[in-house]
Amino acid sequence: MRVALSEAKKALGLTSPNPAVGAVLVIDNRIAAKGHHREAGSAHAEVECLRNFDAPVPARATLYITLEPCSTAGRTAPCTAAIIKAGIRHVVLGATDPNPRHSGRGIVELRTAGVRVSEGILAEECTRLNEAFNRWIVAGKPFVIAKCGMSLDGRLTRPPKESRWITGRDARLHANRLRASVDAVLVGAETIRVDNPRLTVRGVRRAHQPWRVVLTRSGRLPRQAHVLSDKFAARTLIYKRKSLQSALKDLGQRNITSVLIEGGGEILGEALDQRLIDKVQIYLGPILTGGPVIAFPGKGAGKTADALFLRDVEYEQIGQTVAITGYPSVPGCGQTTKLPSDSFVK
């Protein structure tokens, strides 16, 4: 299953709005074939794995899959049908389908056909792999990551006319990999006016360019802003006089499963106050800048009991920068019940 997870990770950021899935065929305790879902519309991991084996599958073979196989037809045939047709007698699964409308259906089909199914192997890792897809398929809204490079005194910027960098080069490459894994990057209009960022993915092989989303009250943006004039201009969405919450709702309806909020402070503060954040990724630079822009300003919490706490916190040192990752633990944060029509876009 760990090998199947490694296969799935090869396509992180490339399969949306489908999940990343990996599959491994094992015969006599040896890996005979591997496969992963490469992009929406292409063969799913199970089918690619079986194609890569390219031979009749012996009855003693076991197929390991990170996610419960799909059981409905769309742009591709159901994977359950392919597994049964191939003569697989034993399937080992990591996570079940997160869509309540389909969860367990593929397992039932396989068992009805006489396939032995083992569930829950490395379930937590397999589920976490598709945290954005899981959020979107259940709530109908994208998984929101709040990301910023912050000084030790909580600033997003250095004093005027100084270099804008707070974190090191390696940390910025790490952040580009994060950017490459999401469907959209979101900023406020002031960030466009002051910094004129490109919001493109750099230094990451086989990466796709996420949508660039700008929230603006006035609608007045510089015509020569990179996001409006470069070769990716067609992948820029402008929301005029829209709240962050309404913009996120619309993005979810556009099959955008994950959004990386990159600033500025006002947008980050709004996301925090409204409890719209599913995950935080903070790069803490070894500097006290006294810069003018504060990270996560907002209204704050009236008392500690109402504050946003993080769970599953991880710390990673990247050069002289510390990357802090965590998940909000506020009960009911951003939960809804609306469901898209299917868990895969085939």
Structural class: alpha/beta
The shape is: elongated
Task: Profile the largest sheet.
Answer: 8 strands, mixed
Rg result:
22 Å
Characterization of this structure:
With 346 residues, the protein is an alpha/beta fold. The protein has eleven helices and 13 strands. It has helices at 2-9, 45-53, 79-85, 105-112, 123-129, 131-139, 169-180, 189-195, 226-229, 244-253, 265-273, and strands at 22-27, 30-36, 62-67, 90-95, 116-118, 143-150, 184-188, 211-216, 236-240, 258-263, 279-284, 310-318, 321-328. Helix 3 (79-85) runs parallel beside helix 4.
Show the helix and strand layout:
Blueprint: H1 2-9, E1 22-27, E2 30-36, H2 45-53, E3 62-67, H3 79-85, E4 90-95, H4 105-112, E5 116-118, H5 123-129, H6 131-139, E6 143-150, H7 169-180, E7 184-188, H8 189-195, E8 211-216, H9 226-229, E9 236-240, H10 244-253, E10 258-263, H11 265-273, E11 279-284, E12 310-318, E13 321-328
Parallel strand pairs: 3-4, 4-5, 6-10, 6-11, 7-8, 7-10, 8-9
Antiparallel strand pairs: 1-2, 1-3, 11-13, 12-13
Helix pairs in contact: 3-4
